[in-house]
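2024-03-11 09:14:02 DEBUG pipeline.ingest accepted 1 chain
2024-03-11 09:14:02 DEBUG pipeline.ingest length=336
2024-03-11 09:14:03 DEBUG pipeline.predict start
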Amino acid sequence: MPSDRPHPMLTRRAFSATLLGAMAVPLVARAFAQAPSDIPSRIAVMSQLHAILVQRGDEIIVAEAPRGRGLDRVANIKSCSKSIVGLLTGNAIAQGSIPSVDATIGEIAPSIIPSDATPGVEDLTIEELLTLRAGLEGTSGRNYGAWVNSEDWVAFALRRPMVASPGGRMIYSTGTTHILGAVLAVATGKSLLAQARTVLGQPLGIEIPAWTQDPQGYYFGGNEMALTPRGMLRIAALMRDQGQFDGDQIIPADWIDQSTQARTRSPYSGFDYGYGWFLTRSGFIIARGYGGQIIAAHPEQDLAVAITSDPTSPARSGGYFGQLMDLLEGPVLSLA
């Protein structure tokens, strides 16, 4: 209610500040009004981009789908799946199925280790798998085809030679995350699909359809998951809000903190990497998938972003992915 106290006389400095403040309000309002219109013009020439959603606070302020399957049909999120496996790992630790990130494959899931595995794989820790620092030769890139055509994906990955010390440099390998997914399945007694639906799908109200399984029945632990852009946005908001969604704590806040601490660095993008999430200098937390699939959160600016793109075209850091980062760190960040 209005105060009955008389207003003090304005000094010249106070008057100037008040006048400048009054002038700034419509300028800020115009900036917010105009900024979303910048995004359609930018994405109009980005032929690989299918859909983009931006949420500030609780409000979705950008919802564009110029190409692809739209905002409400599932899209292949590719290696954003690795970040989802990271969240499921945190839940398994919180539930006691896995003692800690220091637990080893040999302690938790010895049954997945083949008799002819590379010596030392039994001592690989959950943290080394999460951060892609297992030291094993990668199964991505030129080795990908042989790996996914093998009779046992987990065994194939565990037979790769050690090309670096475990816990050392980051070696981007989907096989490493697939090993982690198999460990989670053994440790919890539930498939990755069941875990994803229970831990994320039901609480967030998002659709998580079944995806690719390996010959042993383990769901692909680092690729091929599918979500709608709106579902991706809810996961982005979850990361932004310290694991909370709609007032409920879905993922422990301390796991979000641990996941967003730099543990290593990508040799390709130069971004820091935590427990399945890339970390940019501008403050974005990013899940990145082949072709330009992105789940991004910027906690300081209260932003959550989902982007889907053509899953069949590459998105290199010096090419289309670089354009996406320019979009995030330019027009999108200006919406904060």
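2024-03-11 09:14:41 DEBUG pipeline.report DSSP finds eleven helices and twelve strands in the chain.
2024-03-11 09:14:41 DEBUG pipeline.predict end
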